[in-house]
Amino acid sequence: MGSTTDCLFDYAFTVYRGTFIESILPGSGSKPILARNRGALWVSAADGRIQGWDWQASDDNAFAELMTRNYWVDIDAVAAQGQVNGHDSKIKVKIVTTNEEQNEFFFPGFIDTHIHAPQYPNAGLFGSSTLLDWLETYTFPVESRFGSPPDSKTGHQTSTDPRDAPILAQQIYDQVISRTLSHGTTCASYYATNHVPATNALATLCYIRGQRAFIGRVCMDNPDFCVDYYRDFSANDSLVATRQTIEYIHALDPEGNLVKPIVTPRFAPTCTRPALQSLGDLAASYSPPLHIQTHISENINELALVKELFPEADSYAAVYDKYNLLTPRTILAHAVHLTADERALIRARDSKISHCPASNSVLGSGICPVRTLLDEGITVGLGTDVSGGYSPSILEAARQACLCSRLLAQSAPWQRDNPKDADGNGSDGREKLSVSESLYLATRGGAAVIDMARDVGGFEMGMLWDVQLIRLGGVKLAKKSPLDCVVGDGSADLVKAGPVGNVDLFGTESWEEKIQKWVWSGDDRNVKAVWVGGRLVHSRV
Ligand SMILES: O=c1[nH]c(=O)c2nc[nH]c2[nH]1
Fold it and tell me: From ligand 1's centre to the CA of 327, what distance in Å?
């Protein structure tokens, strides 16, 4: 592969050469499929957007013709020859090439539509808890540590300065960004905590590190549910502090090119009616309206609690609808136990769903019927839901989405409501998500969930170069039989020969099979480089 480092000299385009794989919808009503192209694609250095491609330019001759035709000169090549000047009639480009022998390919960056950044220290810690006791035992304690000391005179937290966030909070947020970028997450919709300085620190760090992000200050003012050591003291406190983070983020990134605020009532039980009302109004008061994120219908005990706290509402979804929180820019996490009426309401409001399969399993919440959501025309993306989810990897979420969809047929509600197989048992298999579908949810589905379907998620004209370079590694089989090796010397050992990560290739796989192997056994070792808006934000040698 060519260099993935940033160039010392100005250039007009980066030309990416090699193999490009993405998940696409071939037509309306169809299912996603993987598409593969070989050739060259170029991205403007000015705005990080795709300016064109040539799928004929897949060999050296055709690529040289493309360079000549466009008056392009390779800035690294001329710099290596000490001849940067003297090419004034040419357009300078930087070239990044995949190594085909290492099974490298460009793939759209992953979009994590639901992740709690302050919970990252708890990833993998949940014991045998379920949602409501997990919140009290594991989650509120860790999130509460992101607060800054109150003002000595007023007793309130008045600072909005990210530097007033505890250093450990800043370090945890920086590590979450490093970790998610290393897994190919180019955009994340983050929940922070209810602390303004720490929330602003998360926004600032995403901005500095170059990760596209939605940043939500978590609102929770209901004293009947929230713990005293970690809550907003009134609906007005929720509103004022949320406004402070919105103003901070708008000042940080006025065009919202990288970082945007997202209104975040944690979930119905943590919020009073006035808080829900004022947050719905707040989101609607901006043009365009702000994004909103919350949780819905994750766990059976939570459903009972919502019924008890909001007896006037017909359903959980109706609580949010009453306060104008179901909008086309609302991300609803989990959605495991929605009724048909709730799904119809969510569809009518064009609100979006973040499917969090790892967390749903870990906390024993249930299996989300993703196929039903998709069949009913609801937009779905994937969320890691750290730390309900144990992994910050969206590839892991894609794998778990495939796995959970296969378990769905075992559940009584699915068996009751859906067609059986030819023998009249279980299910006819339609619930199963394919690898192409789960990768679609991880990229284009996520893009639609964050209302950026025209900007990210694929390789289309004008889309931002939010992309990862995947390296599966080469095939390095020994020439001799392992039976002829000295026992245990490892000379015929594929693992020792150095494949990248866990993906062992034997040279017999089709390209589609290589992608299946990547989804089922790949990890961050396969992510060689990551760009956001054309800027290199992560690389691994
Ligand atoms: O998975 C979850 N994680 C949380 O932090 C949370 N808060 C409310 N509901 C929740 N669900």
Answer: 20
Asked if 292 and 276 count as a contact pair (C-beta separation under 8 A), the reply is no
The tens digit of pLDDT for each residue in 337-346 reads 999 999 999 9
Is the C-beta atom of 298 inside 6 A of ligand 1? yes
Interface TM-score (ipTM) > 0.90: yes
Distance 55 CA to ligand 1 centre (A): 45
Residue extents of the structural domains in the chain? 13-97, 110-450
CATH architecture of 110-450: Alpha-Beta Barrel (3.20)
Is pLDDT of 5 > 60?
Answer: no
Residue that the structure tokens 């769905």 belong to: 408
- Is any atom of ligand 1 closer than 6 Å to the C-beta of 116? yes
- Evaluate: CB of 139 within 6 angstroms of ligand 1: yes
345-359: average pLDDT = 98
266 lines ligand 1 (CB under 6 A): yes
CA distance 208 to 211: 8
pLDDT value at residue 1: 45
Give the ligand 1 atom nearest the CA of 119.
Answer: 5
- Buried/exposed code over 104-116 (b: 16+ C-beta within 10 A; e: otherwise): bbbbbbbbbbbbb
Q: How many CA atoms lie within 13 A of 297 on its CB side?
A: 23
Distance 244 CA to ligand 1 centre (A): 23
Contact 161, 244 (CB under 8 A): no
CA distance 131 to 351: 23
Atom of ligand 1 nearest to the CA of 365: 1
| pLDDT tens for each residue of 521-540 | 999 999 999 999 999 999 99
Residues above pLDDT 90, as percent of the chain: 84
- CA angle (435, 441, 444) in 5-degree steps: 115
